[in-house]
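[09:14] KT: can someone run the structure on this one? pasting the chain below
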Amino acid sequence: MLSVLLGAVLVCAANAFYLPGAAPHNYHKGENVDLFVNALTPMLSSSDDAKLKSLINYDYYNPKFRFCEPEGGPKKQPESLGSILFGDRIFNSPYDIRMLENNGTCQTLCIVDDVTGEDAKFINDRIREDYALNWLIDGLPAAEMKIDRRNGDLFFDMGFNLGDDDEPYHEAPALNNHYEIVLRYHRPTPDDYRVVGVLVWPSSIGGPQEAAPTCADTNTPLILSETETQTVRYTYRLTWNESDTPWATRWDNYLHIFDPRIHWFSLINSLVIVIFLCVMVSMILLRTVSRDISRYNAIDLSEDVQEDWGWKLVHGEVFRTPRFPMALSVMVGNGAQLCAMVMVTLVFALLGFLSPSNRGSLATVMMVCWTLFGGVGGYVSSRSYASLGGTEKRKNAFMTATILPTVVFIIVFLLNFFLLLAGSSGAVPFGTMLLIVVLWFGISAPLSAIGGYFGSKHGAIQHPVRVNPIPRQIPPPPKYLRPWAATLLSGLLPFGAAFVELYFVLSSLFASRAYYAFGFLALTAAVVALTTATVTILFTYFVLCAEEYRWHWRAFLTGGGSAFWLLAYGLFYWASRLSLDSISSVLLYLGYLFLLVILDFLVTGTIGFLASYWAVRRLYSAIRID
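[09:31] RB: done, structure tokens below
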């Protein structure tokens, strides 16, 4: 969570932006309109007490769903790297849709006459887990029209239910086998038509499945028997509605902000925290430190006052090489690489390049940025290692380039294994995994080595004071300055600045909801970065005043303290918003949460360490040492 953008004017930028340079598709009357199907995902309903019941995605053409297939079999559509990583599996479909044709005509898609009891049980279990179908027409997701109860606004909720398990169908779920498809179109010219909205109302029509379809609600739902084989007929009806919505703003109905006051409250709360911290740190630096420096540098002082005290006592120890300088510098280098990736990704998001219309663009940009910023990580790690007194430069360059990608790859590989065991379509294909390995170890690692070379060439940062040959004794610190206490206390403020926005981010990651408030996210990230830096400087000053000169690791832990609160909040989110029954879903959630915590710890820890390093150098360069 890092940004250096003052994006106040871009808070709502993502609402009306579409991918710059993308051209709309102009249809002519009678032209074929392709309907693509995506993986089925668990849906989080809009009720306040709703819980997500699974994290497993399933292919639309999973044999157990028994959906209608196109002639010649389903054909996979090309997807971006990010789209694949986010679980998209897009195929063609047998739906015959032609612009402005078959308006209001009931059509049979297919009749499946051998749905077994085993298939029925699989489908009923997915209905109980609130799975949703995801269609795409002209890049727009099919959605259900809903009303925001808070303000009465109409919006499009992406995806629609596989079936109905609410009362009176709680014991025996009803399968939705009929779809009322409403396609909204806009006419920029008399002969051109553009799709600007896709709405679907699913329903369950029971009764005899072999009779001629009427698409009329019979008040008799289709209940699948889990003990015998039965027939299912899938039908649909198209309705064409002309709309005044232009193509450029067709996503506005989909990107609905639920109560934007929550985002504003989060920002105001965060800004108050930051202002308070900045004022507090400024008072310390401008008053206390300035007074200390003036006292230390005074010439005509009495013998008693000339004795060193406070943070000046450790001037000969403060730049002593810490324990495990290799590990610390590698973590700082990888954290700097992640910071650069986050900053550039947020810039692309604020400029509109990461619109939901470009599926998977967010993950793709993050992967590419991570790869290209390998040089940043290598350079920062190498210079940090040299400044900390390290001498094994080649080992440092190798560890920086390989440790984090290896850890992430192991975690993702294990999660992928669990997805394969669960039969999920979200499992990353072998070819994609191989591409990621090539990106990381074939491009990022050499760039990291080049960055490490230039970092070693520039050498260590010059310190303003010398290090004493014999280390001094360290008195017992106060309880609140002990490492774990300081880590948890310092992490509370940055976490408090971001926890409201964190809810929406977790809902986007785990509940398949599109996240588009990148303006709010950028401002929140900037506030978190500033809060982390100021809090870490504050605690480092307190540590030095307590004559504790081993501040390097403490600064990194203090800066990364918000990651531990992120872990606690993730567990709270699991208890309050998830109801995961399968071991696979539980392991997936904990694995992804652990990965998020590691990345957040590296980013915020790096911010804290670099801010403290800068402050300590400025502090000790301002005093005169005899």
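[09:33] KT: thanks! The first strand starts at residue 35 and ends at 42.
[09:34] RB: yep, looked fine to me
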